[in-house]
Amino acid sequence: MQKLTQQEEEVLRAVFKVGSGNVKSIMQQMDADAPYTTIASTIKNLEKKGYLSSTMVGNTYIYASSISQEEYKKKFVGSVVKQYFSDSYKEVVSFLVKQKKVSAEELKEIIQMIEKEK
């Protein structure tokens, strides 16, 4: 799947929130004040890229995500780790610690989660 623009990501997150809906219901889940036509265009781009599918109900298109939020997170995080951290999750954690975005207590919880999964 193709990389998304910031606006496309925002629209996709809104679709995840709403589940499925028309352009107006998707816009209601967004913080941005973009015009209807801009959001409608962005939705069409997401459909072309394979992230959304549409169904005609009466004279309105209803849009839904073609991938789960979990699948998208996996793809997004994987690409960030690959592009910015030499494909090393250890480097990600190290970066977060240095930036004071993860506390020692949170790291202990992460270690416990990892040990549970073994």
Helix-and-strand structural type? mainly alpha
| Order of the strands making up the biggest sheet | 1-3-2
CATH architecture of the largest domain: Orthogonal Bundle
Classified in CATH, the superfamily of the largest domain is Winged helix-like DNA-binding domain superfamily/Winged helix DNA-binding domain
Could you explain the architecture of this structure?
Helix 1 crosses helix 3 (36-48). The radius of gyration is 18 Å and the shape is elongated. The protein has helices spanning 6-18, 23-27, 36-48, 69-84, 89-98, 104-117; strands spanning 20-21, 52-57, 60-65. Helices cover 60% and strands 12% of the residues. It has six helices and three strands, in the order H-E-H-H-E-E-H-H-H. With 118 residues, the protein is mainly alpha-helical. The two termini are 31 Å apart. GO terms for molecular function: DNA binding. InterPro entries: BlaI_family, WH-like_DNA-bd_sf, WH_DNA-bd_sf.
Structure characteristics:
DNA-binding, DNA binding, Arc Repressor Mutant, subunit A, BlaI_family, WH-like_DNA-bd_sf, 60% helix, 12% strand, mainly alpha, three-stranded antiparallel beta sheet, BlaI/MecI/CopY family transcriptional regulator, 118 residues
Could you outline the blueprint of secondary structure elements for this entry?
Elements (H helix, E strand, L loop, with lengths): L5 H13 L1 E2 L1 H5 L8 H13 L3 E6 L2 E6 L3 H16 L4 H10 L5 H14 L1
Antiparallel strand pairs: 1-3, 2-3
Helix pairs in contact: 1-3
